[in-house]
Amino acid sequence: MGSRIGRWGDGEIGGWGERAQKGFLASGIDPADRKGHKNLYIDLLQKKALAEVLDLTGEETVLDFGCGSGRISHWIAPRVKKVIGLEVTPGMIELAEKNRTSGNVEFILYDGVNFPVFPFLFDLLLSIGVLQIMRGEVLKNTVSHLANYLKKGGKGYFIEQVSDNPKMGRPKLADYLQAFQESGLECLQSYPIRKGRSSLLYLIRYGVIPKKWFPSIAHWELKRNRKNSRNISYYQDYLFLLRRK
Length: 245
Description:
The protein has eight helices and seven strands; from the N terminus they run ααβαβαββαβαβααβ. It has one domain (10-244): Vaccinia Virus protein VP39 (Rossmann fold). The model is unreliable at 1-14 (pLDDT under 50). The chain is an alpha/beta fold. Helix 5 links the parallel strand 4 (122-128) and strand 5. The chain has helices at residues 10-19, 37-53, 71-76, 90-98, 136-148, 173-182, 199-205, 214-225, and strands at 61-65, 82-87, 105-109, 122-128, 150-162, 185-195, 236-244.
């Protein structure tokens, strides 16, 4: 048995079970995106943001925490030695296996309470849209346990929603930074990569903007938002680059 940290919400887990029925991208991004344009764009933007900061040799062992449908696990797999995706929802594991594209990925189901014990430490840790549903001590305890999975000097790459509005139910930037610091993770970089609400995203969602423009728009948005860290009344996707002390 692994370490017991406390479940982060049966309602959240049950909801993800339903989301797993929505498909590869929609399950982990926006299940209400019927046309799929918004999900395609956000997936591209997040991967582009990660690609800008990832420093890989090809020999890394990677833990994808809350891997969902495996969209990030499968994306990074050709670039590294081994990927393990850790997930609490059986339907998500099934979806990840169904969309398997690489042989060096293993998906592990756990109960959201007891973290599994591995016979090795990881070089790299990923978390995309998982910590954002946690609060207070659960957030701190989860980050602490994830930090213990990393080798000394190992890197963590997180993309999580940040908000200063308590009605949004998302941690503040200071909450994440405190959890990282208390867990022995040095935050090398933290900056916004996307606004949660924008007219641009609505145009993308409803197919007004052609898909061929998505890469150029994502490049522009990443550059613009990186300098836009002010009070967050709705939410923003933040990228965190961390190192195990």
